[in-house]
TrEMBL record:
Pfam families: Beta-lactamase
Annotated protein name in UniProt: EstA family serine hydrolase
GO molecular function: hydrolase activity
Domain of life per record: Bacteria
Biological source species: Streptomyces monashensis
Organism phylogeny: Bacteria, Bacillati, Actinomycetota, Actinomycetes, Kitasatosporales
Length: 383
């Protein structure tokens, strides 16, 4: 007989419905569920819940990593170090090869460069190394004419924008993130997990889809040479599993900026709270004009890689348009293939983070986020 999972943690007055929503979900899950939920309202932590693991357990958050990467880019744009409408080649001359000379940083951030992967694919070692990815992408011909369409640059966008950061500052994106975001706020969201923190990492487990979900997956096969296969590096021999990627110590140590981050829900929510709110006696990281810029939709409609409707800002997902319509216009964040979700809603002052250990079906923000987000957002507005 399976043991009932206990929900731990606290919620602020007025957020009791969030605990009820979380507890109801946990009660209906498998006995091995592990997950965390955290939220801030106007810089004050109002939700801190977990079940199955520990409060400070760390999980691979896959593409939620892109939020940290592009917060760095937003800060450098705000500083004037980077300019959105400059050509990428201004910072990175080698990028001009194979018809990419006119691509701007704005287009690159909005998944419009057509550079979702390389014809030959990457090795597992290369996927852990943003410099190696960038070097190989510089010589790749785009898969569509840049600027004419968009498609999710799943495993490479952080390497591309990270190379721009490195060329402009002389430092890696991961180094800038550590200095300006993670360390000052003690955010438990790492782009490069120190060996000393490894004991807190919880090995990612594969999803266990129902028979109905398995049938749905079988009905939507991805060909070996499609844009999706190339973007997710599935066109190479023995590509490995989704979980193999974050369970690699090499990936966790290097923290590739597209999908190699490791975090707790507290870490995800803290980062977004710091972006839009006064936190730890510090002013918001982003000024109102920068918040509006990164949250403005730049690519919306048919995503050539996902073959579905998607919406992106500048490196971030347009979370209200893509995932949770209840949220305010200009909400920005990023979900992860394992089920994680994280965002900032500047209009309500809400910052949100969710992590789970077992990857979720069908990928991206896990379905339970819908109920959690509605409950948290409703409570935040009621305040």
């Amino acid at each position: 007989m399976s043991q009932e999972i206990t929900v731990h943690g606290t919620v602020a007055e007025g957020f009791e419905a969030v605990r009820e929503e979380f507890a109801a979900f946990v009660a209906g899950e498998r006995h091995d569920y592990e997950g965390q939920l955290c939220a801030y309202a106007h810089g004050r932590q109002v939700v801190d819940l977990w079940a199955g693991g520990e409060a400070d357990s760390l999980y691979g958050v896959f593409s939620s990593t892109k939020g940290a990467a592009h917060l760095v880019v937003a800060l450098l744009v705000q500083d004037g170090t980077l300019e959105l409408d400059r050509k990428v080649t201004y910072y990175w001359p080698e990028f001009a090869a194979e018809g990419k000379a006119a691509v701007t940083l704005r287009e690159l951030l909005a998944h419009r460069a057509g550079l979702v992967g390389i014809d030959a694919g990457f090795s597992a070692e290369e996927l852990a190394d943003d410099r190696a990815i960038a070097e190989r992408l510089a010589d790749q011909k785009p898969f569509w004419r840049p600027g004419t369409a968009f498609g999710y640059h799943a495993l490479v966008i952080g390497a591309l924008t990270g190379e721009v950061v490195r060329r402009a500052t002389g430092r890696t994106l991961q180094e800038v993130y550590e200095e300006r975001v993670r360390a000052p706020y003690g955010a438990d969201f790492h782009l490069g997990l120190p060996e000393s923190e490894e004991p807190r990492y919880r090995t990612a487990q594969p999803m266990l889809p129902t028979s109905e979900q398995q049938a749905l997956m079988a009905a939507q096969p991805a060909g070996p040479h499609t844009l999706a296969a190339i973007a997710f590096n599935r066109h190479v021999p023995d590509p490995g599993t989704l979980e193999d990627y974050v369970n690699s110590r090499l990936v966790r140590a290097k923290g590739p900026a597209s999908a190699g981050g490791v975090a707790s829900a507290r870490g995800l929510a803290t980062m977004y709270a710091a972006a839009i709110s006064e936190l730890a006696d510090r002013p918001p990281l982003l000024k109102p004009d920068t918040i509006a810029e990164v949250g403005q939709v730049h690519s919306v409609g048919y995503d050539l890689v996902a073959r579905a409707h998607k919406a992106y800002g500048l490196g971030f997902q347009a979370t209200a348009d893509m995932w949770h319509p209840v949220l305010g216009a200009g909400t920005f964040g990023h979900s992860g293939a394992g089920g994680s979700q994280a965002f900032a809603d500047p209009r309500s002052g809400l910052a949100y983070g969710y992590t789970r250990r077992r990857t979720a079906f069908p990928g991206g923000a896990a379905p339970e986020n819908e109920g959690f987000v509605r409950a948290v957002h409703g409570a935040a507005l009621a305040r």
